[in-house]
Amino acid sequence: MQDAALRLQNLAEQLVGTELPVRIRAWDGSEAGPPGAPTLVVRHRRALRRLLWKPGELGLARAWVAGDIDVDGDLYQALDLLAEFIWERADDAPSLTEKLRDPQVRAAARALLALAAPFLPPPVPREEMRRPGRLHRHTKGSDKKAISHHYDVGNDFYALVLGPSMVYSCAYWESPDSTLADAQRDKLDLIARKLDLKPGMRLLDVGCGWGSMAIHAAREYGVRVVGVTLSQEQAAFARKRIAQEGLTDRIEIRVQDYRDVRDGPYDAISSIGMAEHVGAERYLDYAHDLHALLKPGGRLLNHQIARRPQRDESAYSVDEFIDAYVFPDGELAPLGTTVGLLERAGFEVRDVESIREHYALTLRHWVANLEANWPEGVRLTSPGRARIWRLYMAASALAFEHNRIGVNQVLAVRTPEGGKSGMPLRTRQWGDMSPSGV
Question: Which residue ranges are recorded for the region named Disordered (predicted)?
Answer without folding.
Answer: 418-438
